[in-house]
Design a protein that fits this description.
Elements: E1 4-8, H1 12-24, E2 28-32, E3 44-47, E4 50-53, H2 64-73, E5 83-88, E6 91-96, E7 110-114, E8 117-121, E9 124-127, H3 134-140, H4 142-157, H5 166-174, H6 176-182, H7 184-191, H8 200-206, H9 212-220, E10 241-245, H10 249-262, E11 266-268, E12 271-279, E13 282-290, E14 296-300, E15 303-306, H11 310-315, H12 323-331, E16 334-344, E17 348-350, E18 357-359, E19 366-369, E20 378-381, H13 382-385, E21 396-404, H14 409-412, H15 415-428, E22 437-450, H16 459-467, E23 472-474, H17 477-480, H18 486-502, H19 508-511, H20 521-524
Length: 525
Amino acid sequence: MPKTAIIIGAGPAGLTAAYELLERTDIVPIILERSGDIGGIAKTVNYKGNRIDMGGHRFFSKSDRVMKWWLSFMPLEASADQQITIRYQQKERTIDTNSAAQPKDEDHVMLVRNRLSRIYFLRKFFSYPIQLSFQTLRHLGLKRTIAIMFSYLKARLFPRKEEKSLEDFLVNRFGYQLYDLFFRDYTEKVWGVPCNRISAEWGAQRIKKISLSKVLAHALLPGKKNGDIAQKGTETSLIEKFLYPKFGPGQLWEAVAKDIESRGGKILLHQKVDQLTQTDNRISSITSSHAQTGEKMELQGDYFFSTMPVQELIGGLTGDIPAEVREVAAGLQYRDFITVGVLLKQLSTVDTHTGKASTLDLKDNWIYIQEKDVKVGRLQLFRNWSPYMVKDPSHAWVGMEYFCNDTDGFWKMSDEAIRDLAIDELTRIGLAQKEDLIDAVVLRMEKTYPAYFGTYNRFDVLRRFTDQFPNLFLIGRNGMHKYNNSDHSMLTAMVAVDNICEGVTDKSNLWEINTEQEYHEEKNA
């Protein structure tokens, strides 16, 4: 009888694990997905022909393995005037998209997109990451600029010795003034707690080695500003190009799911995992219930991959669970996420002197809203991710992103009330007029961001406990309670399958992913 792997979650990590098992082993994967969608947080929602990317997913990676994986499913779109250099393992090869093999389906392709993200503050646009350019200095004024420079010099000469919190991490790299102006308010919108209560590890994972000096060097010195999508020498926050599926990230993951099912894997939707049974220090079975009918199902397996929140995993585990393990799991915290898709005839602003409205032609992928008088944290302009995300490309299709907890009053508001608030805020910050509104929709995602506070500082207790089960693999963002990007999540799945193939029982290499800059490619080549 073939062996079976039960995989919890049909997001990037779960789907990658299933594909890798089918590609490299005789193990049959069965995926249990709680929702009715494929892709997890990387899904694409189609609302009346207008597509929403839940959170925004730029396809770039410093891992050649991941880049090659993506392009094996979705080739680059042919372009007569473009050459793309991509590094595979230790080699460099140039793909001339003019002569490359054409994809079988012209809609099933990766686009090459230019990255532009900016900060909206004081009703003005600033580069992201912040640059001390002439425009920035003009917007800030002389007094603020001098304060920023002295603050940065102080941070360089007298850095905070212990980086215990995210505030310490950011102040040491940017100085207190720049941190206070451009980082604190947005970060606290995202997490709902002060930066001095968030672990510095969040900065180490999401911002890595970025600093004001690197931002300036990137802007002023001639560097790698070519068509290299892999961009190994470029910090994540400074990448200038990325790949993007023609119809959003969900298009890729739906293709992966189709491939998995065509090769004998199973994907069962609307399955809520209720219980994991342990027998003789191994996971032996999973019990789930259908989210719509309530029908129970028990599946036995040889291997188990979990991308579900660790809090829920421990809560559903049978057997003798140490009190400390239950305590740490129960104390983990998460942030939930609401996107309001707003369809407008156009984005526009009103001149404060003349009172006349003028059209805004913004090229941004993301706009970080630093303004204190609104709750919205970030805007996505979906047309700039791909023009095919909008049914009518002449329209402005905006994703307004809100961060909250499912216990908040904001989360509990009706969709209509949230919709009205979002439209009011977009108008208030001067980026749209209410008379240009065509339609709007509210979408909610629970446990989108694993938090680096609560009992996170004791997470090693959970890691040691779960690692003792030789056939249980925690992968992905929520599965490992790590704020990973999609490529990191995929790599955790790939390395877990590597370990099965090679008989490796130590799971340290899984936890090391996204802690070192090159993602341990030498182990994965």
